[in-house]
């Protein structure tokens, strides 16, 4: 039992063996170590993980989701996925028996956590496990779910193709975001025309090769920016020839310049100082 009245949450592997949640919404605080969860797994319930600090990465068969601070990722029930994160990552997680209204049931989504939702999650994490669903605590939970249903979705997902040749191409580009290899070069290596490869890429990912690579490069920049690296260095490392081009593309994709994307971080809650006080 944690100091705030929570029972200890089982490790992720044990969650699959539970027959039900103690309440329709269950919350806990979790500080993740620097371990890449390379195994694929799924939960019997939907999971919302809100990044307080650090960057969370979720990998599914169809896409890669990157979750910076002040954002959260929704992982539907029974969806196979794996998770990775740096050592400084600190999360607040909610397990939901049912998804909020109008949420896509079959795919992940990254949403913005507003100041109101942040405070609702923090307050909920202090409730006892067996809170009164018909009393004030239950009403707080309903407000939280209503606000989550209204949360703005962000384009922090990179779609991945199912075709093995395109998958290898995308893996190479993700490993080397500054690679200058063009679609013409990739088509020549594959022994097909550029037009054929372009059509296949669009069909498999829903994006043109140019837009996919641009989004991949911008997503690859976020961990370095979150660590406080110089914007100029980050821009060059992810394949941009000039700082102005990077800033323009970043603003178009995320609606904010790089310097402002993490600026309100100081206003967010701080991660627990003593890991022993977190309920796993």
Automatic annotation (TrEMBL):
Domain of life: Bacteria
Matching InterPro entries: AraC-bd (IPR003313), Homeodomain-like_sf (IPR009057), HTH_AraC (IPR018060), HTH_AraC-typ_CS (IPR018062), RmlC_Cupin_sf (IPR011051)
Segments forming domain HTH araC/xylS-type: 167-264
A Pfam family: HTH_18
Keyword Zinc attributed: no
Residue ranges, annotated region (Disordered): 261-280
SUPFAM superfamilies, per database record: Homeodomain-like, RmlC-like cupins
An MF annotation (GO) of this entry: sequence-specific DNA binding
GO terms, biological process: positive regulation of metabolic process
Biased composition (Basic and acidic residues): 264-280
Keywords from the named record: DNA-binding, Repressor, Transcription, Transcription regulation
Protein's name in the database: AraC family transcriptional regulator
Species whose genome carries this gene: Pseudomonas alkylphenolica
């Amino acid at each position: 039992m944690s100091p705030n009245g929570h029972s200890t949450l089982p490790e992720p592997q044990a969650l699959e063996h539970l027959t039900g949640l103690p309440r329709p919404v269950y919350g806990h605080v979790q500080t993740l170590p620097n371990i890449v969860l390379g195994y694929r797994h799924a939960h019997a319930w939907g999971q919302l993980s809100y990044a307080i600090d650090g960057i969370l990465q979720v990998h599914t068969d169809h896409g890669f989701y990157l979750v910076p601070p002040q954002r959260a990722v929704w992982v539907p029930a029974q969806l196979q996925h794996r998770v990775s994160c740096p050592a400084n990552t600190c999360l607040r997680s909610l397990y939901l028996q049912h998804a909020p209204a109008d949420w896509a049931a079959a795919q992940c989504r990254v949403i913005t956590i507003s100041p109101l939702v942040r405070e609702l999650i923090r307050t909920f994490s202090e409730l006892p496990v067996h809170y009164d669903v018909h009393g004030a605590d239950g009403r707080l939970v309903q407000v939280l779910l209503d606000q989550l249903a209204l949360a703005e979705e962000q384009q922090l997902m990179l779609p991945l193709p199912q075709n093995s040749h395109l998958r290898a191409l995308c893996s190479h580009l993700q490993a080397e975001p500054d690679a200058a290899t063009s679609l013409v070069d990739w088509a020549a290596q594959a022994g097909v025309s550029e037009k054929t490869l372009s059509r296949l890429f669009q069909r498999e990912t829903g994006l043109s090769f140019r837009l996919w690579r641009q989004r991949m490069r911008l997503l690859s920049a976020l961990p370095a920016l979150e660590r406080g690296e110089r914007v100029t260095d980050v821009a060059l490392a992810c394949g941009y020839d000039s700082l102005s081009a990077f800033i323009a593309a970043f603003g178009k994709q995320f609606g904010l310049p790089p310097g402002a994307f993490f600026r309100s971080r100081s206003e967010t809650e701080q991660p627990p100082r003593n890991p022993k006080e977190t309920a796993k």
